[in-house]
Amino acid sequence: MINSIIFDFGDVFINLDKQAPLQNLQKLGLVEWNSELDLLNQQFEKGLIEKVTFLIGIQNHIPGANLIDIEKAWNSILLDFPLYRLEFLQLLSQKYRLFLLSNTDEIHIAEFESKKGISFYRDFYQCFEKVYFSFEMGMRKPELEIYQAVINNHELVPKHTLFVDDKKENTDAAKTLGLQVWNLQVGKDDVIQLFENE
User: Fold this and answer.
1) In the prediction, which pLDDT does 198 show?
2) Cα 17 to the chain's mean position, in Å?
């Protein structure tokens, strides 16, 4: 019997174009996304480096680009957030304990809040008992300690808790801690189908 649900954010509620940042950074002159940029991104997602350090880190690979254009390219990942998903979540919040657990950074969250406006994002955040962003926690999925932190902080029982994420590596990690999981398939599944298979 599920009584708590932990949701991912990107491609579960807000639609993403995961190829767009790389394509737009390449238009600015980036030759390739490499392991150094990968590490930079992970550090930023964990809140270990400041926004300007992150942007300058990318700029080092695209000397001709300015920081504003780089930030714009980085934010091109964010698409729309359909209202019907928020309405579904609001109904769900009346029956379950809900939590948000997202690997994200301060640039993307600021852009989301700015684009959607305060009334929308406040309604969204209010559906959750607690909103967890990796950049505020200093850890990221699929590291086991990030799931454990949510479980411990709210005294959740893993077998009664469902974790929903579009990345298999994240749901696989959650499963090892005894959480129930749904690896949502982007383009095939929609979060509002959550209990259709019950």
Assistant:
1) 46
2) 13
Q: What angle do CA 122, 125, 130 make, to 5 degrees?
A: 145
Three-state SS string across the chain, please?
CCCEEEECCECCCECECCCHHHHHHHHCCCCCCCHHHHHHHHHHHCCCCCHHHHHHHHHCCCCCCCHHHHHHHHHCCECCCCHHHHHHHHHHCCCCEEEEEECCCHHHHHHHHHHHCHHHHHHHHHCCCEEEEHHHHCCCCCCHHHHHHHHHHCCCCHHHEEEEECCHHHHHHHHHCCCEEEECCECCECHHHCCCCC
Question: Is the pTM higher than 0.85?
Answer: yes
- The residues with which 97 forms a beta bridge, in sequence order, are 4
10-residue mean pLDDT series, the chain (198 residues)? 97 97 97 96 98 98 96 98 97 97 98 97 98 98 98 98 98 98 94 78
